[in-house]
Structure formats: C-alpha cells, structure tokens
Amino acid sequence: MKKILLVLMAALLSVGLTACGDEPKAEEKYSDDAYLKAMAKGLEDRWDYADSTTDDVSRKLYETAAQKELDQIKGFTDSKFKDSKLQEKAIQYINVTKESKKIAGEYGSDSFDSDWSKNADTRNQILADIDKEFNIPISKEYQTLLDEQNAKGKEVAEENDKTKNNSRIY
To answer: How many folded domains does the chain comprise?
Structure first.
C-alpha cells in the first residue's frame, strides 16, 4: 500500500511540475498595424483641419495641423514593432512631424518658408517610403491627397539622388 501511495504521489508531483513549466507564452504585441492605422488617422485629421479651417495662414494653422497628426502617432516612439524598418521610419516620421510643429512656431521669421519647405520635403519622402513599403490604410476619400504627398516625396527622393550622384563627379 505504501508503494502504491508513493508511486501515485510521485506521478501527481511529476504532472504538477510539468504543467507549471509548459505555460503558454503570451503572444508578443507589435505596433506595426496600429501605427499604420494611427498614421492614416493623423493624416486624415490634418487634412480635415486644413480643409475646414477659416483661419488665415498663420502660426496657429501650421501648429494645429502638425498637432492633429502628432496626436495620433506620438505614442509610438517607444513601441515595439515586428518590422524594424517600419519602426525606424515611424520614429523618423514622428520626429520630423514634431520638428514641423517647432518650425511652425517660427512663422513670420525670414527662415520660416525655407525651413518649412525642407521639413515638408523630408516628411513627404518618409511618408512615401512608408506607404510604398507598408501601405498606409488611408480612407478612400483621402487617397488622392495621399497620392499627391507620395508624388512629392518621390520627387524629393529623386532630387536627393541626383544631388548625391552629382557630388561624386570630380
């Protein structure tokens, strides 16, 4: 009887320890899809604001437009992405959008137009890269606006390539 009891206890102990060691791992949460959706929403919010505002062109208009987009994407700076290339582009895009808000604060200065234009070029190029590789899930009604931004970004990339190639000629 003691032997049966010891064997039974050993079997129960063995099953109990095995069950504890085989707990299923929690599936890692990645932010790739959530970021792309937030990016689309931020762009749509930015474009809606720009289209609906009756404000004259001003610092407020530029700052608010940038903030509308940032409100959707700023929380992804420290998020974990499955695709490291998307993560890199997302952080670049967030940073350049933050920079655009800072530049908007310089509205009226002599350097504003130049700084804003350079920033917009960089932003459009990153936007085009993200959309080309990962397909931003923009609503159908905004597709034309996204296509325009992508065309500008592609043009900037081509111009940068020309400049880079020309600088190599002696």
So the answer is: 1
Please provide the size of the chain in residues: 170
Give average pLDDT by consecutive 10-residue segment, the chain, 170 residues. Answer: 52 52 66 98 96 85 95 96 97 98 95 96 97 97 96 92 70
User: How far is residue 16's CA from residue 24's CA, in Å, rounded to a whole number?
Assistant: 15
Assigned domain for 4 exists? no
Determine, yes or no, domain membership for 26: no
Count of alpha carbons within 13 Å of 11, Cβ hemisphere only?
6
Dist CA 1 CA 41 (whole Å): 71
Question: Does any domain span residue 60?
Answer: yes
Q: In this structure, is residue 127 part of a structural domain?
A: yes
CA-based angle 134:31:124, to the nearest 5?
A: 40
pTM: 0.80
